[in-house]
């Protein structure tokens, strides 16, 4: 699949809906690669927390980029932050943008309601994309009248470090839309892969069952979480073991994905839920972000 650099109308202005871990990461990388960005969330308070998280992450990037040059580090961070505007009104933000990337709560109805409202307000040329981890893009897109200008852009956590973007095509996505999304992924410094709208696309389809199999191994008492993590890091070269990764991604996210798939595909054994994960989530132990999941973390 060759990507022509001459596809009309490269995406310059990006609106990111959702200022959580993924949304703020996407906003950061889009701004750091020269795009004008509007980040949207429900309250000013949430947005100022997202902004602080971006500033902190940019500080880490700047330290690497301009080692020993504090002045250039500060001006890099200020320059990128200057390209990020904040807005609490998604419809207002959609009125003049080339692309909307949605990274809000994984709830189909909420996403559909959002896109339906945006569809009324956004210009004709605006492309809509969802960063959903596990919901079918087609189901979200049907809330709009722009199926040809709808696709998936699936990033990975932490967005500034992970080099991949999955670009997802629904049957109606036009070639031009798809090309523009691929081009944006590349312009954001990522490697892109083409995906059909199948559960979990490529990465989560393999990664989530792998993490769940590790949990089942623990539930059976075959090995400890620590030993399984050590084994996969040193024996298979993974940067994090499955339990470290599940805690990092968030056990609520992992559970959400597996709950959806187990309901939809009750006969697929590797998609089945786990009593252990269910209990951790019920106890509010969602991983690193709450200070405890499979492991305990120091709260900074
Ligand atoms: N922003 C900027 N820089 C960051 C960062 C962030 N949020 N997080 C880490 N870094 C940088 C650090 O500054 C550090 O830079 P340095 O090497 O120059 O000092 C570098 O990354 C390494 O960080 P650490 O030393 O703190 O830790 P690690 O060496 O363990 O690396 C990691 C951290 C990059 C997260 C690595 O452990 C990793 O790749 N883990 C696997 C992550 C993964 O699999 N993600 C995908 C999850 S699935 C998903 O997201 C899909 C969703 O739909 C659920």
Automatic annotation (TrEMBL):
Its EC number is 1.1.1.35. GO terms for biological process: cell differentiation; fatty acid beta-oxidation; spermatogenesis. Gene3D superfamilies: N-(1-d-carboxylethyl)-l-norvaline Dehydrogenase, domain 2 (1.10.1040.10), NAD(P)-binding Rossmann-like Domain (3.40.50.720). Pathway: Lipid metabolism; fatty acid beta-oxidation. It is an enzyme of class 1 (oxidoreductase). InterPro entries: 3-OHacyl-CoA_DH, 3-OHacyl-CoA_DH_CS, 3-OHacyl-CoA_DH_NAD-bd, 3HC_DH_C, 6-PGluconate_DH-like_C_sf, 6PGD_dom2, Mito_3-hydroxyacyl-CoA_DH, NAD(P)-bd_dom_sf. It is found in: Mitochondrion matrix. It comes from the Eukaryota. PROSITE patterns: 3HCDH. Keywords: Acetylation, Differentiation, Fatty acid metabolism, Hydroxylation, Lipid metabolism, Mitochondrion, NAD, Oxidoreductase, Spermatogenesis, Transit peptide. CoA binds at residues 57, 64, 133. It catalyses: (3S)-3-hydroxybutanoyl-CoA + NAD(+) = acetoacetyl-CoA + NADH + H(+); (3S)-hydroxyhexadecanoyl-CoA + NAD(+) = 3-oxohexadecanoyl-CoA + NADH + H(+); a (3S)-3-hydroxyacyl-CoA + NAD(+) = a 3-oxoacyl-CoA + NADH + H(+); (3S)-hydroxydecanoyl-CoA + NAD(+) = 3-oxodecanoyl-CoA + NADH + H(+). NAD(+) binds at residues 18-23, 41, 106, 111, 133, 157, 289. GO terms for cellular component: mitochondrial matrix. Its main location: mitochondrion. Residues 13-198 form the 3-hydroxyacyl-CoA dehydrogenase NAD binding domain. The record marks 154 as: Important for catalytic activity. Residues 200-297 form the 3-hydroxyacyl-CoA dehydrogenase C-terminal domain. The keyword Electron transport does not apply. GO terms for molecular function: (3S)-3-hydroxyacyl-CoA dehydrogenase (NAD+) activity; NAD+ binding. Belongs to the 3-hydroxyacyl-CoA dehydrogenase family. Mitochondrial fatty acid beta-oxidation enzyme that catalyzes the third step of the beta-oxidation cycle for medium and short-chain 3-hydroxy fatty acyl-CoAs (C4 to C10). Plays a role in the control of insulin secretion by inhibiting the activation of glutamate dehydrogenase 1 (GLUD1), an enzyme that has an important role in regulating amino acid-induced insulin secretion. Plays a role in the maintenance of normal spermatogenesis through the reduction of fatty acid accumulation in the testes. Homodimer. Interacts with GLUD1; this interaction inhibits the activation of glutamate dehydrogenase 1 (GLUD1). This is Hydroxyacyl-coenzyme A dehydrogenase, mitochondrial.
């Amino acid at each position: 699949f060759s990507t022509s650099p001459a596809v009309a109308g490269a995406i310059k202005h990006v609106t990111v809906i959702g200022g959580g871990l993924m949304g703020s990461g996407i906003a950061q990388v889009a701004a750091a690669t020269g795009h004008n960005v509007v980040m949207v969330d429900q309250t000013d308070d949430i947005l100022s927390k997202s902004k602080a998280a971006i500033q902190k992450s940019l500080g880490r990037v700047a330290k690497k980029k301009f080692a020993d040059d504090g002045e250039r580090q500060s001006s890099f961070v200020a320059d990128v932050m200057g390209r990020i505007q904040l807005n609490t009104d998604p419809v207002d933000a959609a009125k003049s943008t080339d692309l909307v990337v949605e990274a809000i709560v994984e709830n189909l109805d909420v996403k559909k309601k959002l896109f339906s409202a945006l569809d009324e307000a956004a210009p004709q040329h605006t492309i809509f994309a969802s960063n959903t981890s596990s919901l079918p893009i087609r189901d979200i897109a049907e809330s709009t009248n722009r199926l040809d200008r709808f696709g998936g852009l699936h990033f990975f956590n932490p967005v500034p470090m992970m080099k991949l973007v999955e670009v997802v095509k629904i049957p109606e996505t036009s070639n031009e839309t798809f090309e523009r999304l691929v081009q944006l992924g590349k312009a954001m410094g990522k490697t892109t892969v083409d995906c059909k709208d199948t559960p979990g696309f490529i990465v989560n389809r393999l990664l989530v069952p792998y993490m769940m199999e590790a949990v089942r191994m623990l539930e059976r008492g075959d090995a400890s979480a620590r030993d399984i993590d050590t084994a996969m890091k040193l024996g298979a070269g993974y940067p994090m073991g499955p339990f470290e990764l599940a805690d990092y991604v968030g056990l609520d996210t992992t559970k959400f994905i597996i709950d959806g798939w187990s309901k939809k595909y009750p006969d697929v054994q590797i998609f089945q839920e786990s009593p252990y994960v269910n209990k951790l989530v019920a106890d509010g132990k969602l991983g690193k972000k709450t200070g405890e999941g499979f492991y305990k973390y120091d709260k900074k």
